[in-house]
Amino acid sequence: MSVNDTSHYYFAKHALLEAGWAQDVLCEVSNGHFVAITPNSTAFTGVVQVAGPMLPALANVHSHAFQRVMAGAAEVSLNPNDSFWSWRDLMYKIVQKLTPEDTQIIATALYIDMLKAGYTQVGEFHYLHHAPQGKAYSQPEEMALRLIEAANVAGMGITLLPVLYSHSGFGGQHATQAQARFIHSTQSYLDLQQACAKALRPDLGTVTKLQAQPSKPQSLHKLGICFHSLRAVTKAQINTVLHELDQHKVVHIHIAEQQKEVQACLSWSGQRPVEWLHNNVGLNNRWCLVHATHLNKQEMQSIASSQAVVGLCPTTEANLGDGVFGAVEFEAANGRWGIGSDSHVSLSVAEELRTLEYSQRLRDQQRNRLYGASQPSVGDHLFTQARHGGNQACDVSLGLGVGRRADFIVLDPTNPFVAASQPKDLINRWLFACHQNLIKDVFVAGKQVVKDFKHEQDEPSRVAFTQVIKRVMYGE
Q1: CA gap 316, 338 in Å, rounded
Q2: What string of DSSP letters covers 266-280?
Q3: N or C: which end of the chain has fewer CB within 10 A?
Q4: What are the pLDDT digits (tens) for 114-165?
Q5: Is 395 a catalytic residue?
Q6: Are 300 and 330 in contact (CB under 8 A)?
Q7: Which is the catalytic residue, given 342, 380, 395, 412?
Q8: Residues 273, 246: contact at Cβ < 8 Å?
């Protein structure tokens, strides 16, 4: 065949394409995207032969990068009624200690671990904006730039979601001192959006803080709109922001995570959170409703009909005791969902998807709850749904298909469950039988960023992150 000097070629014995598993797959990548994918091919001299089964990567729809520093530190009972709200008090205390440098170090280590987990795009729900006591940095977008640079150093894409956070409760209640680092007015938020857009514009180049390695292509990065929650913004603020900003940007919001939130919304407005949002603002396929744990049937139907995505974070929701999302019912209404790692108590695609499925089994006391009419394999169904929802929520197009960004993962061919299984069983084996990481290699836009389970920034990142944990958590 004719070989294009500007292209790179990859060959996989087994690859999960849009239409399903295929054999002897030759992929041509140019400018970071797949330009040809040909099954039943033959490898030629110079082609990169991937070591194991080749699968598409996923987008992580929901991340608070700074919370990684406290992962596992809140598992001590200080209150017989411990809940999300007591966990939040600890988070508020820790957040006061973080510098911009700390935040970049935490995010860099986190994003490297995300890559190793099979996520190549992250929806970063970013609300740590200001210095302690709430004073803006001399460059107000300082913290956002740190996150962009962390993604650059790690070599992954970021869908940056700067958060508008103005109030402490429904109806525009005054923010507390503990929330001072998060707070923006509507206008200062619009200014932040403009600054972030400028930082991400390809013609202006990437704004960098640390030149640890050359910055990554800007095509990896996206910018979205984000409201912290209905507790934190007013209807007027939501409408102003949506009117003033790009009508094509994705829009994220925390909603209906806790029963306390639902009850407070009912007391304030006479409506449940999703009900209020649907009736007063409107939903469409730009929206990602994060958590949405507590929904009634009508709310599920309104989300599904709007084609909005629900951003599920099963391990964090389990860790915080949020409740069980009605995934079986939501899928019956043709609802769309993606997964995120949120507070990062876990960084495992397998654990997120397994926790989601097992929560439905425990609730219903039945097996095999989430599957499709044409896809009875639970693992394959979960993985497909997570990929489609993640793409939509993070405004990317990941998958093994022509025109999509050339992000993919390679499973470890030496693991017995991989080595012995037929392709049709691989995802079920990965999600339900293996508790060690099976992702051996990771590629982003055609470039290898994880090789043999290792990232080139592993050692410096690990050392720096260790020091931040010691100082922030233990005062060392």
Answers
A1: 14
A2: HHHHSS-HHHHHHHH
A3: C
A4: 999 999 999 999 999 999 999 999 999 999 999 999 999 999 999 999 999 9
A5: no
A6: yes
A7: 342
A8: no
